[in-house]
Amino acid sequence: MPNTKKCPYCAEEIALEAIKCKHCSEFLTALTANNTREVQKENEYNDETLGIIGLIIPVISLFVPYSSWISLILTAAILSVEASKLGMGSDTDLKPNGKKYESPIVWFFVIFLLWIIAYPWYYFRRTKYGMKNYGIISILIVSLVMIVGIVQSVQGL
Predict the structure, then answer these.
(1) Could you write out the DSSP letters of every residue in 50-95?
(2) Which residues on neighbouring strands pair with residue 4, listed in sequence order?
(3) Other CB atoms closer than 10 Å to residue 16's CB: what's the count?
């Protein structure tokens, strides 16, 4: 029985029990975590509904007076529910260094507190879980909301 195997990243021979490749410094446990995440994506959650609702809410809030805070809270809540369904921050959702990615609670507070940045970031990030990339659309929505807000504040002067 061989005592070595090939590194899946650099194809160099490494010890069978290796956790990190001595040639390319890649963590081999991350590959297992990523493979587990791929299986979870296919088996558990593959519904775009919450993501699309998260895109629609800020646009609707543009037409409803005084709804910006409600829109912000609803968007953060819906996207954190989707993050939970996708398994973000779970025990198998690991970075190459072995630490967990952002949890649904972290997503809620980051989206709530830093919506302009975190909202598009979430939509780009969710693609790693097999979901469609709505990152560009979310950037356009953020831009639209900011432009409408600026125009409304200038007209209010």
Answers:
(1) HHHHHHHHHHHHTTSTT-HHHHHHHHHHHHHHHHHHHTTTSTT-B-
(2) 15
(3) 9
State residue 153's pLDDT score: 86
**pLDDT, tens digit, 9 for 90 and up, residues 7-53:** 887 888 888 778 778 887 777 765 444 444 444 444 356 789 999 99
Of 38, 39, 29, 37, residue with least CA distance to 7: 29
d(CA 156, CA 153): 5
Q: Rounded to 5 degrees, what are φ and ψ at 4?
A: -130, 165
Which secondary-structure segment (H or E) carries 13?
A: strand 13-15
- Residues 61 and 67: their CA atoms lie apart, in Å, by 6
| Residue 11: C-alpha distances to residues 8, 33, 34, 133, 151 (Å) | 6, 19, 18, 31, 57
